[in-house]
Write a structure and sequence with these properties.
mainly alpha, globular, single chain, Farnesyl Diphosphate Synthase, 336 residues, two-stranded antiparallel ribbon, 2 strands
């Protein structure tokens, strides 16, 4: 028997199966860029053409199919969710003073912070309008709660930046809101379209949440373990922005008191630099490698994938369930 395809290849095949639907999502998103301001269209095209696998629309498609719905409404809902995701990227790059996104100059680097923020607001408005047009109150409720929780996550992360006393509970509080919430909403919206029971809807929402956690944990590990070309941004970006992610948290738990002092000193130094400075964080990155911060973060991500798979175990086997399984595996096995 042939060996199973690596997870990224299996997920790519799953995406190929819904490529027509994802193409419709792209068309729908671009149709929403019409605005009295040419800057909206220009920045919108830049952001939408920058790549990405459209994981959130794909999760919605697969979840709705698993629940028996393959109709046209999922195109508009998926496009709205991706618009929401894109809005958060625009705002995140401003908050983090990022100048690269997927290997290309970020919108704020090209057009300035004010335009990037306002176009992000435009995307939020477009996304909300598309959900209202659909008319499903349950999806609207999920959508509104998701926006609120994602904003809370961003604020919590800012409050806890450069703080070596951050706990794992604090860290999970942030990534649940910032990253996992939107993937959970994507799966739950698909379940709502399928008209399943509340218990089944909760299962799919939890599947998305666990995949989202795994996805973020993998991202946080890659930041310490990949090159700039692979990442599409500078390595150690999280550390340079004062984000105490799980690889660094594990290192702070395991290192000697003297090493902890050096990490704290680095965080204090980074906090005093402006966005254009390039701090020397390699000594801290070396400690993360020494104390297996990356490997154990990936192992933690794998445990969330196991929980995700358990969440959808009661659903019948078939192409949609296999696609969701491949998405979960992709969350931890992908490169940058």
């Amino acid at each position: 028997m042939a060996a199973p395809a690596p997870a990224p290849r299996a997920f790519a095949r799953a995406l190929d199966r819904i490529s027509d639907g994802l193409d419709q999502v792209e068309v729908t998103m671009r149709a929403q860029l019409d605005s009295a301001s040419g800057a909206v269209t220009q920045i919108g095209e830049h952001v939408l053409s920058s790549g990405g696998k459209r994981v959130r629309p794909a999760l919605l498609f697969f979840s709705s199919e698993l629940c028996g719905y393959t109709g046209p409404r999922r195109v508009q809902i998926a496009a709205a969710i991706e618009f929401l995701h894109t809005a958060t990227l625009l705002h995140d790059d401003v908050v983090d003073m990022g100048d690269l996104r997927r290997g290309r100059p970020s919108a704020n680097a090209l057009w300035g912070n004010r335009r990037a923020i306002l176009v992000g607001d435009f995307f939020y408005a477009r996304a909300s309008g598309m959900i209202v047009e659909d008319g499903e109150l349950a999806i609207l409720e999920v959508f509104a709660n998701t926006i609120r929780r994602m904003a809370e996550g961003e604020i919590l992360q800012m409050q806890r930046s450069f703080d070596p006393e951050v706990t794992e509970a604090n860290y999970y509080d942030v990534i649940e809101r910032k990253s996992a919430e939107l993937l959970s909403a994507s799966c739950e919206a698909g379940a709502i379209l399928g008209g399943v029971t509340r218990a089944e809807r909760r299962r799919l929402a939890d599947f998305g949440r666990q995949v989202g956690l795994a996805f973020q944990l993998r991202d946080d590990a890659l930041d310490y373990d990949a090159s700039a070309d692979e990442l599409g941004k500078r390595p150690y970006t999280d550390l340079c922005e004062g984000k105490v992610t799980l690889p660094l948290l594990l290192t702070l738990k395991r290192c000697t008191p003297a090493e902890r002092v050096s990490i704290e000193s680095c965080l204090k130094t980074v906090a005093t630099l402006d966005g254009g400075a390039a701090p020397d964080v390699e000594p801290v990155a070396a400690l993360v490698r020494r104390y297996r911060g990356v490997e154990d973060t990936v192992r933690r991500a794998e445990s969330h994938v196991d929980r995700a798979l358990a969440s959808i175990a009661p659903f019948p086997d078939g192409p949609a369930r296999e696609a969701l399984l491949s998405a979960a595996d992709f969350a931890v096995s992908r490169g940058c």
